[in-house]
Amino acid sequence: MIFKKNILGTGVFLIMFLFAVSFAYGADTSKPVPVPTTVSVDYVLPYAGILPDHPLYLLKVLRDRIVDLFTNQPEKRVNFLLLMADKRLVMGELLVEKGNADLGHTTISKGENYFIRSASELSILRDTNKESAQNLEEKLEKAYLKHKEVVLGIESKLNKNQKKQWNDVDQKLAEIGSTLGVK
């Protein structure tokens, strides 16, 4: 008797589940999708993780420095340094959105230092492995354009006094662009 109730209950549950799934997949998707007015760079930024205003952020920084210290292969090193630059860009953007523009600026500025190191490591890699360097160079060029796009977006939301702080980030981006040969 209990066995029959379990089977009946399971059957009813499956039928309700199937109807719910069919309604979810049968939704009308013919609505026009709005097209963005600005062209965004096709480069995906990573998840930031915990932000610098979190108490455990120091552990994250310590871990990143240890990984940085022990990453010796040039190709992996370029990728790691770029990842750190990308994460700090996202962190800084989130901090500015939270209203902490000063910490956001500091975080992005430190991230651009990682990007500068990544570009200089790429020049070392060019001497040893041209094919790998070419692939990474394309990746760094896209990342540079994305960084520039995000920083310009942040700067457009700041007031005049806050924008003055961001000159050093603009200079670092210009240095990266000249190192990579991108305008």
Write the layout of secondary structure elements.
Layout: H1 2-25, H2 57-70, H3 74-97, H4 101-128, H5 130-156, H6 160-165, H7 167-180
Helix pairs in contact: 3-4, 3-5, 4-5, 4-7, 5-7
Verbal overview:
- The protein has a domain at 57-180.
- It has 183 residues and is an all-alpha fold.
- It has helices spanning 2-25, 57-70, 74-97, 101-128, 130-156, 160-165, 167-180.
- Helices cover 75% and strands 0% of the residues.
- It contains 7 helices and no strands.
- It is globular, with a radius of gyration of 23 Å.
Question: Beta-strand percentage?
Answer: under 5%
Distance between the termini: 77 Å
Total number of β-strand segments? Answer: 0
- The arrangement of helices and strands along the chain is HHHHHHH
Structural class: mainly alpha
Helix content: over 70%
Main sheet attributes: strand count, strand direction, barrel closure: none
Radius of gyration: 23 Å
Low-confidence stretches: 21-30, 32-37
Number of continuous helical runs: 7
Kindly state the mean pLDDT as a whole number? 84
Shape: globular
Pick out its properties.
183 residues, mainly alpha, 7 helices, 75% helix
Give a short overview.
It is built from seven helices and no strands. The protein has 183 residues and is mainly alpha-helical. About 9% of the residues have low confidence.
